[in-house]
Amino acid sequence: MDMDTFPMTVISITTTIRGSRPEVVAACLVMMALDLTFQKYLGEGMIAGSVNG
User: Fold this and answer.
1) Is Transport one of the keywords (predicted)?
2) For every residue of the chain, which 3-state class applies, written as one string?
3) What is the pTM of this model?
4) Nearest alpha-carbon partner for 15 in 46, 48, 7
5) pLDDT in tens, 25-46
């Protein structure tokens, strides 16, 4: 199983032999923006959910 970071995965998805597809690039950029925006809250939620007591 190949484990890449999110930006590297976006690059590999968006580039093809015939070039990049603008709609795929735009969708990936939106996903990256959402990930960066909500990363703090997702981390806090995972930590809060894992603490017993």
Assistant:
1) yes
2) CCCCCHHHHHHHHHCCCCCCCHHHHHHHHHHHHHHHHHHHHHHHHHHHHHCCC
3) 0.54
4) 7
5) 788 788 888 888 888 777 777 7
